[in-house]
Design brief:
The protein has helices spanning about 15-20, 25-70, 75, 80-90, 110-115, and strands spanning about 100-110, 145-155, 170-180. It is α+β, with helices and mostly antiparallel strands. The chain is rod-shaped.
């Protein structure tokens, strides 16, 4: 408001000048501008840290569950895909694992070079492949095995999702393990 137009102010020039000089409440207004981005940033940092923690726990769970394949225990008991997924969840805290969010593929190869070119669990559109297109073969003794797991972790700040492979409010965490089965024959 221009001071020249104060004559139009209904309460008088003195009252208008005092309102223009009044700085009470400025801190509250500035906080209102800064608070929302600050809290979104804080929650995002915590959420990304938690996603990395869950990814490390998923890695450890895959290593633990894959040990049953590597040592031949899965071959002896003919462990099904659902049972192997349950082994992965058993190695993670219960609140962090939901069987419906696990996508699992176990494939065998003749050489490590061939295993390096394993199929992605994503199709050409960047979406997870259909369950019927995903293999589960634990192999024989001394086979080279690739265990590939994707776990869909729920995210609160999904508006900030920059990865096209992530599906809506979920972040796809992956864990891949390549190993040679022990000669259990």
């Amino acid at each position: 408001m221009h001071l020249r137009r104060l004559h139009m102010w209904p309460f008088g020039k003195k009252k208008a000048r005092s309102l223009l000089k009044d700085e009470r409440g400025v801190t509250a207004i500035e906080f209102a501008f800064v608070a929302l981005p600050f809290f979104i940033l804080c929650i995002g940092i915590i959420e990304v840290g938690l996603a990395h923690l869950v990814n490390r726990m998923l890695d450890n769970a895959v290593i633990t569950a894959a040990r049953t394949i590597k040592t031949g225990q899965a071959a002896e008991g003919s462990t099904s895909k659902a049972e192997f997924e349950q082994l992965i969840c058993d190695s993670m805290p219960a609140f962090m694992c939901n069987l419906d969010r696990i996508t699992l593929e176990v494939t065998t190869y003749e050489t490590f070079e061939a295993a390096g070119n394993f199929n992605s669990l994503y199709d050409t559109d960047g979406k997870l492949r259909d369950e019927e297109d995903i293999t589960y073969e634990i192999g024989e003794a001394s086979s080279i095995v690739v265990v590939n797991v994707i776990y869909s972790w729920p995210m609160m700040t999904s508006l900030l999702s920059l990865d096209p492979a992530d599906d809506g409010s979920y972040r796809n965490l992956s864990s891949t393990l390549v190993f040679r089965n022990e000669p259990w024959d």
